[in-house]
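User: I'm putting together a small comparison set for a docking exercise, and I want a reference complex before I start. The sequence is below, and the ligand is magnesium ion. Could you produce the 3D structure with the ligand included, as structure tokens?
Assistant: Of course. I'll restate your input first, then give the structure tokens for the complex.
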Amino acid sequence: MAGPMPDQPNEIVKFDNVGLRYGTDPEVLSDLTFTLYPGSFYFLTGASGAGKTSLLKLLYLAQRPSRGAIRMFGRDMITLPRSRLPDFRRRLGVVFQDFRLVEHLTAFDNVALPLRLAGNEEARVRRAVTEMLDWVGLSHRAQAIPARMSGGEQQRVAIARAVIARPRLLVADEPTGNVDPDMALKLLRLFEALNERVGTTVIVATHDVHLLRKVPDSLIMRLHKGHLSDPTGALRYPPRPASEPVRDAPTERRTSVRRGLRRRAGDAA
Ligand SMILES: Nc1ncnc2c1ncn2[C@@H]1O[C@H](COP(=O)(O)OP(=O)(O)O)[C@@H](O)[C@H]1O
Ligand SMILES: [Mg+2]
């Protein structure tokens, strides 16, 4: 190991003056400087076209910035060799705006994919996938292929696939855009549970401002025409002290999540 990296333990992602342009077009993201802290829950908001998907693409390593510095998991992403990308992608769970399910695989096999790729034994995979499909209310659709599912069902499969391997960072792009408000809330509780119980850092892009109030401890990042523009956003929020374990979230919130989990269990019965 090289010398100490003072700010590493208390950050998952650090952007420093990042800009992004597609081809020779003007920049769609400019001067982005922010930090995502371990175990925190972020909403990324902004009008359509503000640059939310573009920012998330930088986070899930589908796009390299045109300028600036990005560190993730304590590593400089700009100089990361292409061959190391898969390593880092395995730490991420991604819910794509357009789902990107594997068309010839059933809902069950789509959700199982990350666990199988990670080499889990099949009995364990079956248990986990069955439970997860139950959580998102899709047990009865386990054997359906994406073409036979509604947009809302595909979205729930995409979410189940993104969370099943308990990623360190979950990146979700408009994950509730195709479901009704009740299901949106339920899916949000799933992200919250992952955040609370596993310590996953979560970032959810949404243009639905009603969603923001539903996660009391969340931090809000606002994009406006490619600039982050919220004075109370992630930058100014006091980070969780490095010494404080992630599970030591406020008791009240933990209780409400537990209640939510019980409700889900009840729903499924
Ligand atoms: N692949 C691309 N090539 C060129 N321009 C793009 C591409 N993707 C997005 N854009 C442009 O970048 C801007 C931000 O888009 P996007 O990141 O999708 O915003 P949002 O997700 O907030 O709606 C828009 O002006 C969009 O037209
Ligand atoms: Mg978008």
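The pocket of magnesium ion (ligand 2) is lined by residues 52-53, 97, 173 (CB under 6 Å). Residues 100 and 158 are 8 Å apart (CA to CA).
User: Thanks, that's exactly what I needed.
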